């Protein structure tokens, strides 16, 4: 009663405060709550006044009480906590008021809603991480280069993409290396309502197995030896609100597959070393050139994850089965690079015929690289058949016309590609070949760029 008598002259000032005010006596019993506190927490004062803080904690109103901390320590205490029905982020400062005998008479607590500040701080961390990841091999920036298809197979795929783009369902892209899986992933993202949000590409086969979990899911402070003191936002969390492309998804270790499945089921993500989960909203696109169904049968890929990824399955045929696309893409890439490098070039019809007759095992990626190479490396204005790489202009010619080094390179290619056919995992293929996983990746990248 003495407190209430003292506070009456200041009641209007306290009530107009934008900070919540919460007052307890020296025993921890609630005496007063202002209107701002009710608005921040959603709790009515008649629920709280007259009740002990310990009782309110046990009833689930708070996870901890700064008032009890102050009574215990006999000094000012500040904590950050989530509070109220909407679990708002608040900064809570409890101040002791002592009587003449140095006993705590009251604890006056101010409660400031910092939800917006926390949101801005987290968004700043995200943007810093994204800026850093823009220089990282896992990120993907939407390519504005226009690519078109004329074949019935590809037009049917594009029609399907236009129908499903706005739905958040998972998409599985199947097809040989270089056939255009990434191009279709671009199209799905850019045609969806998520197009202005992050689009992050993750090459599952390029991340070392011992790092892939922390890269995908992130980690909290002190999660493991060598972890950053600030923790790290995972790639999946960075893509919140946008799209993730998991390229070479067949390379995911089984332990990581379990955790990815949980993210797809619960829509929450948990960083390594943390007990707290965070809600995420991502659209997942997966891509592989491996027979996932066969891997499931062999126990090398989880069946439950397979069906989660395969809600929509799009199969991209190899370029050799799309003659209409081949002719269109030859003309398109040639015109594109002539304009790109401001070079006057023409292509002899016989050269184009050889390009059309080649089987293009590297698909669209190989075609694009070959044409760019011709445009920039051939000194003459007209590109003749003799200007083509040896393996293109000598189709059907005996290998003896090639140098020893070239013949050995072709043999090496056949051995490596045969190993990749026999082993769906790059790591397993590398082991069978007796070379390091990273060496195999470098060889494949070198051949695809030739």
TrEMBL record:
GO terms for molecular function: ATP binding; DNA binding. Residues 151-376 form the Sigma-54 factor interaction domain. One of its GO terms (biological process) is regulation of DNA-templated transcription. Keywords: Aromatic hydrocarbons catabolism, ATP-binding, DNA-binding, Nucleotide-binding, Transcription, Transcription regulation. The keyword DNA-binding applies. InterPro entries: AAA+_ATPase, AAA_lid_NorR, Homeodomain-like_sf, HTH_TyrR, P-loop_NTPase, PAS, PAS-assoc_C, PAS-like_dom_sf. This is HTH-type transcriptional regulatory protein TyrR.
């Amino acid at each position: 009663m003495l407190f209430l008598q003292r506070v009456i002259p200041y009641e209007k000032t306290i009530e107009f405060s934008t900070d919540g005010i919460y007052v307890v006596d020296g025993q921890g019993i609630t005496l007063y709550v202002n209107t701002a506190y009710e608005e921040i927490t959603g709790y009515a004062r008649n629920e709280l006044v007259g009740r002990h803080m310990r009782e309110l904690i046990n009833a689930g109103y708070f996870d901890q009480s700064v008032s009890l901390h102050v009574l215990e320590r006999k000094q000012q205490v500040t904590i950050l906590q989530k509070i109220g029905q909407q679990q708002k982020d608040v900064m809570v400062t409890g101040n002791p008021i002592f009587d003449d005998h140095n006993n705590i008479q009251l604890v006056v607590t101010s409660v400031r809603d910092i939800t917006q500040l926390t949101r801005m701080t987290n968004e700043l961390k995200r943007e810093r991480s994204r800026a850093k990841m823009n220089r990282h091999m896992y990120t993907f920036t939407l390519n504005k280069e226009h690519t078109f298809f004329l074949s019935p197979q590809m037009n049917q795929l594009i029609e399907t993409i236009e129908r499903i783009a706005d739905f958040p369902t998972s998409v599985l892209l199947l097809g040989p290396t270089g056939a255009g899986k990434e191009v279709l992933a671009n199209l799905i993202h850019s045609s969806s309502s998520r197009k202005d949000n992050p689009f992050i590409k993750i090459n599952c086969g390029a991340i070392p197995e011992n790092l892939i979990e922390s890269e995908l899911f992130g980690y909290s402070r002190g999660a493991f030896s060598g972890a950053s003191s600030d923790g790290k936002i995972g790639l999946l969390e960075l893509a919140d609100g946008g799209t993730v492309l998991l390229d070479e998804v067949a390379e995911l270790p089984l332990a990581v597959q379990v955790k990815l499945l949980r993210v797809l089921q619960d829509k929450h993500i948990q960083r390594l070393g943390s007990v707290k989960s965070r809600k995420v909203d991502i659209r997942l696109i997966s891509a592989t050139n491996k027979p996932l169904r066969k891997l499931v049968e062999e126990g090398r890929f989880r069946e439950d994850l397979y069906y989660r990824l395969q809600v929509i399955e799009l199969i991209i045929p190899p370029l050799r089965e799309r003659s209409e696309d081949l002719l269109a893409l030859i003309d398109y890439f040639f015109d594109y690079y002539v304009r790109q490098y401001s070079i006057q070039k023409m292509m002899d019809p016989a050269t184009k015929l050889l390009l059309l007759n080649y089987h293009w095992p590297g698909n669209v990626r190989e075609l694009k690289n070959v044409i760019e190479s011709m445009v920039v490396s051939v000194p003459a204005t007209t590109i003749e058949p003799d200007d083509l790489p040896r393996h293109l202009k000598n189709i059907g010619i005996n290998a003896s016309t090639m140098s020893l080094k070239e013949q050995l390179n072709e043999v090496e290619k056949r051995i490596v590609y045969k190993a990749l056919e026999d082993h769906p995992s790059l790591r397993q293929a590398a082991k069978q070949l007796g070379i390091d996983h990273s060496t195999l990746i470098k060889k494949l990248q070198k051949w695809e760029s030739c």
